[in-house]
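Protocol step 4 of 6: structure prediction from sequence.
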Amino acid sequence: MDFKEIIANAISKVTNIETEEIKQYIEVPKEKANGDYSFPCFRLAKELKQSPVNIANNIKENIEIDENIISKIDVVNGFLNFYVSKSKIAEATIAKFNVQKEEYGKSNMGEGKTVLVEYSSPNIAKPFHIGHLKTTIIGHSLYNIYKFLGFKTIGLNHLGDYGTQFAKLIEGYKRWGDEYDFSTNPIDKLAELYVRINQLCSEDESVLEECRETFKKLEDGDEYCTKLWNRFKDLSLQEFDKIYNLLGIEFDSMNGEAFYSDKMQEIIDILEKNGKLTESQGAKVVNLEEQGIETPCIIQKANGSSIYATRDLAAIMYRARTYDFDKCLYVVGEEQTLHFKQVFAVAKYLGLDEKYTNGLEHVSYGMIRLPEGKMSSRKGNFVKVEDLLNEAITKSKEIIEDRDIEDKDLLAKQVGIGAVIFEDLAESRTKNQVFDLKEALNFNGETGPYIQYMTVRTKSVLEKARYIPDGNNINASKITDEASTNLLKYLSDFESTIISSMEKNEPSIISRYLIDLAKAYSSFYNENKILCEDKELQDARLYITYMTKVTLTNGLGLLGIEVPEKM
């Protein structure tokens, strides 16, 4: 039962305005005292040429709506507030849940459409730091969300395995490679080497120029450079896999920048043929002023070597041909905003169908900072993700040490990893963040462990009862108290929450929802005795508990968080 649809239909008949237009303005009031749904009549003031108060009063006087569904209508300052019968809320929510049960919230709305999600994309030969963690966690959650809604979803790890930074490492290795033992902690050694060569480059411009020439050699297939590059890459992938295994993440493609090295010439040729390439100080660029972008996009450097943009354009062409995508999301930090504006603008000159160029979207996110400031791999100021995850697991184990749980190692891993993931997704992705592990592991705060705990509580209640009632035989009139109604409202909103999260590419919408749902269940649990002598009442309360368990479990799954058996 769609209460918004019922209300919009009734308002439409009074105002002669389309139901769909009315429906989009109906909202859920923040204050419970203002009803279950509210319609702001100022939305119609211009069209009906009346004051919002007059419109509201007129609608209230003339509206025809089933009193068994809408029990009361109030007018407050031009708002129409609708109060839904509590038993109808229960009936409608249970009926909605019964259609899907364990798959509650799923949808086939994306059927026939393909979404690519490019995320993580760490740089080879550098430690995987918490800056990379954010793209990894946001991207994986978006991958889960789109897939849950029926889209064919492809996860892409566009590895940073090409560019001048590798030439710097090669030059650093030439100078000081013999000083390092790469058989242990190889990425740490490579990071030290990278910081060292960067320092030299900043002091001596001629060294930086040597690095640029070395990259051109790498592009041209120089045997020595290629051999070193492959060694750096293999060492890095071994380290990255440890992190992805901890996070439970797999990718459908690991094609990095180097994969597109033999596909870039076609991009240059197309742009040349279309008259879009011009020369600037020896480099080849595309002017984008006609698209409102003042800074031209460099396609080829003066020495003939490629740049990020060229490889990204080659990737777009390849992905369009390979995947026939409807949408391609780039989960990359906000500092790359101009880069993607340029690349997406240049893509329009490649002769691709508009379906592909219109489907390109930069999903940006804010910075993660240490208490002392911004991280930099060039300066060696970063936190390694592997260290962070292992510390989270260790601290989780300390917290649960006194609990009577059989597999504490598994629980510590689930709680620790879940805490880190939720901390990353707890607020809007565009907001800058100071990562606080202590707060993330707070079992009583608005955290991942708190939601995991409440989910485990629902499981414990069901295990104690030893049965799940038949959802088709629940007496809705037994669960009309305020705590039950509040919980049912949240349960009813699960699918729309997921869709909103998908439309805005914002996993924190689900995170916030799960916190509110967990709190609503906590209130319900504290105010109602679930196992009781009244069998109909017990069945109704048990079934709400089952619905909550499924919803919390599915919601956490969309974020990439596991639910423990015990806590």
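Step 5 (inspection) to follow. The CA atoms of residues 114 and 325 lie 5 Å apart.
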